[in-house]
Amino acid sequence: MTLPFNLAADASAPPRPAKNPLALIGNTPVVEITKLDAGPCQLFLKLESANPGGSIKDRPALAMIEAAERDGRLKPGGVIVEATAGNTGLGLALVSAAKGYRLVLVIPDKMSREKIFHLRAMGAEVILTRSDVGKGHPEYYQDKAERLAAATPGAIFINQFANPANPLAHQTGTGPEIFAQLEGKVDAIVCGVGSGGTLTGLSRFFAECSPATEIVLADPVGSILKDVVEKRPPGEAGSWLVEGIGEDFVPLNADLSRVSRAYAVSDAESFAAARELLKREGLLVGSSTGTMLAAALRYAREQTAPKRVVVVSPDGGAKYLSKMFNDYWMEDLGFIERPATGDLRDLIGRRHDLGAAVTVAPDDKLQVAYARLKLYDVSQLPVLEDDRIVGLVDESDLLLAVIENPARFDEPVSAAMTTNIETIAVDAPIPALRRMFDKDFVAVVVDDERFLGLITRIDLLNHLRRRKD
Ligand code: PMP
């Protein structure tokens, strides 16, 4: 067989096997985005999800560990301590595994279970601490990590917010790559700030090699950084759902002096941009890329001359599938509007008439009901026969059925379900729900005989929360 390239000499030949996973860090691809409206500009995405740990933070993780090795603070078999539940933790876990260091991460207890499972599965030791306390409190995650490192023989505190190797990784890696990939023609770079490493490193590289390149900040609404760039006294920090960027303080590693434009982007606009990119271009990116992409599109559309605009996309979207790519999550938080019906259907979390309810049939086995409760993380299932509700089955019903004899998991749902259910008509007023909740019933909404869905207390709370805005 003849290959379409000359293996020995051709630049189009695919790269040879890397010597180890760490050798795969960097040299990430850039793709041009053509299906979104970028005004007169060309828009490029640098896909940092291609790093082996899945994000841009592999670069500083490797750089910070190697810097500590070089200056002798980190010895073979040493301990690395950091305070993070994010991509930095995953990057450090990757490098620690490859180099044989023990990694201890101090994580606020509000972080998602998925992130903690992921880090533990990579071999990191996770220490949970309080998320409801701020700087200065002994349980504050940064302070706790620093103390822990000081008290542990052979340990170093990585401290990505102040570690100079963090921006340096971008100044010597990410920056030159972008410059080479765009053949030196880069008019603007859009990025966000978490630790500030990316923005500062790119600012420094471009200040030297291409001073006309604009540095544009994409900041979540609620973060104070845009105010700092625009030299306004920062307003009180708010909260946002986009992960990895935005701050209520200016990290030591964030040098904002070269930022010429800053955009504040809401969660809604960030999520919409990421979802649009997936729909139009098929690229699954994370939420902070959504913020940066939204800012880049605004910047691009404001231009009168054609410009080449680069967004550094910090991570991929797989870890956000149950959040911003989940329509129900988006609806529950009011980011997607369902057409209003004006009746109780507006309150149903998962509508059966739209194919969204999780249900069982009376002759399904109890183990099917058990698996469905677990898979969808719901507390009860309606039991349906031809769109009519004939019962409800919840954890207590299941437990009661099998507690004496686990073999009963093979029995049908009809043997264990509750048939004492009260229905509520779809045109009943909302206060009528209160009566059902007071009796500890879940509201079963019907239109005549036809089952439409369940309303639980959290569905009512979601509805009221949406109406507040
Ligand atoms: N996006 C995501 C998803 C991140 O995890 C991070 C790192 N916190 C950033 C953006 C920001 O990068 P930096 O720390 O270099 O400012």
Briefly say what this structure is.
The chain is built from 14 helices and 15 strands. It is an alpha/beta fold.
Mean pLDDT: 93
List SSEs in N-to-C order: EEHEHEHEHEHEHEHEHHEHHEEHEHEEH
Briefly note the CATH topology name of the largest domain. Answer: Rossmann fold
User: What is the β-strand count?
Assistant: 15
Secondary-structure class: alpha/beta
Total domain count:
2
Bound chemical compounds: 4'-deoxy-4'-aminopyridoxal-5'-phosphate
How would the global form be characterised?
Answer: globular
Low-confidence sequence ranges = none
Number of contiguous helices: 14
Rg, nearest Å:
26 Å
CATH C-level category of the largest domain = Alpha Beta
What does this structure look like?
This protein is an alpha/beta fold and 469 residues long. It has 2 domains: 19-337, 3-Layer(aba) Sandwich (Rossmann fold); 341-468, Roll (CBS-domain). It has helices spanning 58-70, 87-99, 113-121, 141-151, 165-181, 197-209, 225-229, 267-281, 287-302, 327-332, 366-376, 395-402, 431-438, 457-468, and strands at 30-33, 42-47, 79-83, 102-108, 125-129, 155-157, 188-191, 214-220, 259-265, 308-313, 380-385, 388-394, 423-425, 443-447, 450-455. Strand 11 (380-385) and strand 12 form a beta hairpin. The radius of gyration is 26 Å and the shape is globular. The site of 4'-deoxy-4'-aminopyridoxal-5'-phosphate (PMP) has 19 residues, from helix 6.
Question: Features of this protein?
Answer:
2 domains; binds 4'-deoxy-4'-aminopyridoxal-5'-phosphate; alpha/beta; four-stranded parallel sheet; six-stranded mixed sheet; 14 helices; CBS-domain; Rossmann fold; 469 residues
